[in-house]
Amino acid sequence: MPGLTIGDTIPNIQADSTHGKISLYDYLGDSWGIIFSHPGDFTPVCTTELGMMAAQAEEFSKRGVKLIGLSCDDVQSHTEWIKDIEAFNKGKKVTYPILADPKREIIKQLNMVDPDEKDPSGGAVPSRALHIIGPDKKVKLSFLYPASTGRNIDEVLRVLESLQKAAKHKVATPVNWKPGSKCVISPSVSNEQAKQMFPNGYETMELPSKKEYLRFTDV
Ligand code: BEZ
């Protein structure tokens, strides 16, 4: 299936939502965005995921990120479902909009279709997809999970921090990186440039190849 992937510009989706009609570009403005789909309303894993996104909404907001959920059912169904999500979440409000996609058009545009799951009438069902969108409206990172596997929202926050650091400092984040630990300097940065760009310095790891490409720094 052709599909939206990293580097692509996200289409300017127009849809009904729990916050009224939404035009995606107007909603995002110049912010980062996270759009995440769910197989369906009133399903167990989705209820826990939307609840956790609501619980972490402030963390995303602090990082300049706007959240937007998507499930194929209609707005009335979403509105009823939100009561369950908030009850599960001990009253924490769902403050982000949830898009409706009853015609299953948006999920096709956004590469959010589960290839195996079908609804009772044979229609397409969303996978558990999540796209992180940069201020330039390009997809920076995507998660593509099957319906049976709930996402780890701490991991969504972690990769967001990595993306934002990389966008700001010409660094990358190594294996199992956690916020606050050292980053590596991008290979496109020469040692001369690195001295200017990282005034706190950096450490180069000595390697058998003698190539000086593994450079750690704090930013
Ligand atoms: C769920 O959200 O729990 C779910 C939805 C569709 C298939 C399997 C699980």
TrEMBL record:
Instruction: Cite the EC number.
Output: 1.11.1.24
Catalytic reactions of this protein = a hydroperoxide + [thioredoxin]-dithiol = an alcohol + [thioredoxin]-disulfide + H2O
Segments forming domain Thioredoxin: 4-165
Q: What keyword terms does UniProt attach to this protein?
A: Antioxidant, Oxidoreductase, Peroxidase, Redox-active center
Cross-referenced InterPro entries: AhpC/TSA, Peroxiredoxin_AhpC-typ, Peroxiredoxin_C, PRX_1cys, Thioredoxin-like_sf, Thioredoxin_domain
SUPFAM superfamilies per record: Thioredoxin-like
Q: Which residues form the active site?
A: C46
Task: Give an example GO molecular function.
Answer: thioredoxin-dependent peroxiredoxin activity
Q: Name one GO cellular component term.
A: mitochondrion
The Gene Ontology biological process terms listed for this entry are: cell redox homeostasis
What is this protein's function? Thiol-specific peroxidase that catalyzes the reduction of hydrogen peroxide and organic hydroperoxides to water and alcohols, respectively. Seems to contribute to the inhibition of germination during stress.
The record's similarity note reads:
Belongs to the peroxiredoxin family. Prx6 subfamily.
UniProt-recorded name of the protein = Peroxiredoxin
Q: Which organism is it from?
A: Cucumis melo
Q: What is the lineage of its organism?
A: Eukaryota, Viridiplantae, Streptophyta, Embryophyta, Tracheophyta
Query: What gene makes this protein?
Result: LOC103483915
